[in-house]
Structure prediction request, 237 residues.
Amino acid sequence: ETPLYAALDRDMQETWAVHGVYPTFSWMPDNKSIVIWAGGKIRRIDAATGQAADIPFQVNDTRRIQDATRSKVEVAPTEFDVKMIRWANTSPDGSKVVFEALGRLWVRDLRPDGTAGNPRRLTRQSDHFELYPQWSRDSRNIVFTTWHDQNLGTVRVVPASGGEGRVLTQKPGHYIEPTFSPDGQTVAYRAASGGYLTTPLWSLETGIYTVPARGGAATLVTASGSQPQFGQRSDRL
Prediction:
C-alpha cells in the first residue's frame, strides 16, 4: 500500500463518519487517475505520482438563509426550577418525602389533601454532597451517604426534622445504598470501588456491610451483592 494523497476533508455528514468515511471516489476510464473532492474543489489525482490537478466547475444556485432562532439564557440566576430529582422516598407514615436535588437532600411535607409543602434542606452543611436517603421504619430518622472529592464518603444518620447528621463509618470510602434495620439499631450499606472519575483509594474491601446506627465498627456481611434490604426481622438481610 502506497499513500497517494493526504489533503482530504473530514466528512461531517454522519455521526461516526468523522473517522474515515470518504464517499464518491471515481476512477477515470483509463485507470490512470482518480477523481475526488477536497478543499471545496473537484480534483484529479494521478495514480502513479500523486499529483493533483483541479477540475474547474461552476454552479449557479439560489439559497435562502433563515435567521437563526435565538433565546436569551440567564447564565447564573439566583433561583431556578430543578428539572430532575433523585432517590425520592416517602416516609413509612406517609407524612413526608425526602429526595436529592443539586447534591443536597430535601424534605417536603405531604398533606392529606394530596398537596405538598415547601421543600426544605435536611442538613445545614455545604462541604459535601448528600446521596441515597432512606427512612427508618418509624419515620423519625434518615440514613444517607456523602461524597467529597478529597475526603471521600461517609454514612450518616440525621433526624427527619433536620440537623447536622451523625457519622457512622470510621473509615472513608465509596458508600452507597444505605438502609435501616426494622428495629432502627443497625444500618446496612454497600462499599463500592472508585476509579475513572473518582479516586481509586479505599476501594479494596468492597461488599455489603452493617454498622450500629449509633456508629462504631463495621461488619462485612458479604463481599458481593447490592442494594441491601431487611425484611420483617432485623436479623436477616
User: Anything to note?
Assistant: The two ends are 64 Å apart (CA to CA). The longest strand covers residues 129-135. DSSP finds no helices and 16 strands in the chain.
